[in-house]
Each structure stands twice: as C-alpha cells, then as structure tokens.
Amino acid sequence: MKLKVSKSQPFPNTHPKNQREKEREEQKFHQTLNLITKNYSKKKSGKFLITKKLV
Question: Which residue among 18, 34, 36, 42 has the highest number of C-beta atoms inside a 10 angstrom radius?
C-alpha cells in the first residue's frame, strides 16, 4: 500500500538512494501524522492544529 504525499519538487529524484531516503522520510511522516491524528481525533479542531504544525 503506497501513500502519496503531494509535494512540489523542482526536479524528480532519479537516484535510487535518494528515492529510498525520500520514501523513508515519507513513511516516518505518515507514521507521525497517524499518531497525531489518533491523538487529536477526539477534538474537532484537531485537523486544523495538525495543519498549522506541519505547514
């Protein structure tokens, strides 16, 4: 299962090592996002808080 993160990039990563590091960073990002979402899911303003923190 692949999760897509929309990020504007000037040029795509063609090197396999960079691609792997990028995928790892995205995985960590999604894991943290999931944890935060679970923590704030009870609050109605949770999503807005998450958006402000990550942007």
Answer: 36
**How far apart are alpha carbons 37 and 46 in whole angstroms?**
7
d(C-alpha 46, C-alpha 25), whole Å: 23
Cα–Cα distance measured from residue 16 to residue 41, given in angstroms and rounded to the nearest whole number: 36
Token pair of 20, please?
């792997």
d(CA 45, CA 28): 23
Higher per-residue confidence, 45 vs 17: 17
Q: Look over the chain and give the mean of its residue pLDDT values, rounded to a whole number.
A: 67
What number is the average pLDDT over the span 8-32?
A: 74
Inform me whether the pLDDT recorded for 34 exceeds 70.
yes
Dihedral of CA atoms 2, 34, 6, 48 in degrees, nearest 10, equals 160
